[in-house]
Task: inverse folding
């Protein structure tokens, strides 16, 4: 999901074709992550089983879900990073074994190209994220403007590859 510049949200006025000032002049990346996360949380409804990605944007989403819904949703985390945050927000935690069908998963990209191909997993939870998102009726990816690139890899950051103990030698040979 590409999120428009915050100053374009909810505006009744025609916008210029090109933003006169880059988004950094308005909001930091963390502030944009927060705006994008709040938009994604608008899709969350009472009673849902939610899959939650890992990272700083997901933390904003969890905080928002806690403010709005608390114990009205069940959450599956894709890593242990936010266990304390979820508890503080009052959101009950479940797992894929007890809840193998997930209503909505919210996750975050690391890079997105103009064709909407994306890289994700730099937070180190790729396998669990794929499992939870594969079990979801709906999968929403949050993207702030800093993640948009002309081609994948253009940010210069690494592309994550997750290797699990089962068959790791084969994985190593193929890298
Ligand atoms: O893929 C991920 C975890 O495996 C993260 O969702 C991704 O790295 C984005 O993180 P952040 O919200 O901190 O920018």
Result:
């Amino acid at each position: 999901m590409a999120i428009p510049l915050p100053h374009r949200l909810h505006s009744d006025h025609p916008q210029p074709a090109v933003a006169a000032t880059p988004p950094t002049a308005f909001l930091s990346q963390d502030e944009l992550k927060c705006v994008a996360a709040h938009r994604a949380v608008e899709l969350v409804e009472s009673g849902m089983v939610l899959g939650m990605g890992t990272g700083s944007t997901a933390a904003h989403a969890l905080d928002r879900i806690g403010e709005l819904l608390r114990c009205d949703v069940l959450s599956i985390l894709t890593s242990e990073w936010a266990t304390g945050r979820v508890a503080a927000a009052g959101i009950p935690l479940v797992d894929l074994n007890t809840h193998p069908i997930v209503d909505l998963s919210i996750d975050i990209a690391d890079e997105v190209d103009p064709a909407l191909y994306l890289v994700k997993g730099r937070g180190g939870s790729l396998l669990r994220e794929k499992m939870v998102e594969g079990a979801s009726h709906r999968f929403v990816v949050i993207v702030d403007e800093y993640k948009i690139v002309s081609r994948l890899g253009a940010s210069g950051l690494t592309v994550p590859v997750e290797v699990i103990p089962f068959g790791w030698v084969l994985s190593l040979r193929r890298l």
